[in-house]
C-alpha cells in the first residue's frame, strides 16, 4: 500500500477546518475567511459537505464555484479563497537542490535516477533497508541519505519550504513523529535561535505558524521512521 505524502483531506472534518481558520495566522488576503465564518460553514454542511476533501471536490473548477455560490448564497470570492486555503494544507514537494547544506554531487546523482524532489525521495526511503540500498546504488554515505529522508519527511507538514525545513531539522527535529510531539512555544524559540546563528532567512513567521505545522504533523498517517 502506498504511503500518503501529505494530509488525507477526506479525514479532516469541516468543523476542524473551521477551528483552524479561527486560530491560525492567515495571509492578509485570506483574513476575509473569518467573515461570517460560522454561518458559511453551516451552509456548507447543509449542502452536504462534511470534509475538506468534499469541499475541494465541490469547488474544483470556476464553474462549480459559481454554481455552488448560487445554490448556497456564499459569495464567489469567499469560496474561491476558501478553496485556496483548503488546498494549502496539502504538502507541496520541494526540490532537493534548494535545501541549504545539501551535497550538490549527491543531488546530481539522485536526479540522474529520477529523484528530484522531497516526495520522490520519501517514496524511495520509507525503510532503513531502502535507504541503505539507495546509498549503495549511488555510492554516497548512508548519513546523507538518512538526512535527506528526514528532511523529506518534515516537508509533509505543509507550509514547509526549503529554508524552514532546514531550520526545523537544525533544531534536532528529524521526523514527522518528533514534530508532532513538539511544544510550539519551545520549537519556535529554537528555530529563532538557529536562524540567528546561521542567518538562513529574513522571512517572518510566528509561533502560530509553527503550531500549524505541529497540528498537521499530528494528523499525518504512516509516519516515516528514520533511524
Number of domain units: 2
Strand pairing plus helix content: what structural class?
mainly alpha
Count of alpha and pi helical runs? 13
Major sheet size, sense and barrel closure:
none
What gross morphology would you assign?
A: globular
- Fraction in helix: 55-70%
Head-to-tail CA distance between termini: 22 Å
Could you tell me the radius of gyration in angstroms? 19 Å
Instruction: List the secondary-structure elements in sequence, H or E.
Output: HHHHHHHHHHHHH
Average pLDDT over all residues: 91
Let me know the number of strands.
0
How would you sum up this structure, described in words?
The chain is mostly helical and 227 residues long. Helix content is 58%, strand content 0%. It is globular, with a radius of gyration of 19 Å. The two termini are 22 Å apart. The mean pLDDT is 91.
Blueprint of the fold:
Blueprint: H1 14-23, H2 37-46, H3 52-58, H4 62-72, H5 76-87, H6 104-112, H7 118-124, H8 128-138, H9 142-154, H10 162-170, H11 176-180, H12 184-198, H13 207-219
